[in-house]
Please model this.
Amino acid sequence: MPAKPTLAALARVLAPALLGWYTLDRALKLAAVVAFFRRPAPPAPPAWPGVTLVQPITRGRHDLAPILRARRALDYPGAVRHLVVCDRADHATQERCRALLGPGATILLADPDGGAIASKVAKLQVALPQLDGEIACFVDDDVALPPTALQALVAPLARDEVGATFGLARYISWGTVWSSLMSLFVNSNALLSYLPLAALTEPFTITGHCFALRRATLAAIGGLDGLDRRIDDDHEFARRVRARGLRIVQTPLLYDVTNELDSPAAYHAQLKRWFVFPGR
Model:
């Protein structure tokens, strides 16, 4: 009778096969990333619509100065209105935003909605009645936008079938071991997860760091009503857009995210979100 294969013999057979499969997987994903960034940019609209940049701000460990200066320096051919929402009791952050964004920014105040400060969705709800541009762009307070960010997000929205656009995060925090581990994890996995998937199917969700849509679309889907009661708010928002028969477009916009983590618990909480919501 032939001898049964030993574990070592199986390993000698499986190891090259697994290595070959991994190499093929990486190669195909890298090819998809390269192909994505080689796509021709959508044509510029005949006239660039006005954009209201909605910015919920919560006092945190990261430095707001470079983030808000980058937003003031956005290179967009149309009108941009800066709508900033701060916690009512956070006077220091309110003054900092006024100093960094200048007198043209509108500062709105949000009251706490169950805790010591207002949640992100509560801040966004405060801003909605003040929207006046044709395009609403929502951006978190830890996101530094490149100069052409609004052009990348707005151009696809000129097509009637496009309901919302979003970009790609690049983490830039390296000050602690935990921040560095998070940045390494995101930067080595995000592009190789999102972009190959976008080559196979239409995006079914958004990344809530930074996204844009027409103000009329936002009204048609009921605004942000009920999102404060959902843990999957980004996914539910995207579902509402798609339920109107509109597409969600992944744009090549790369923006920097400052995510300061100072403990294993903070790192674990952030990492858990990536596995609970792998579609982000």
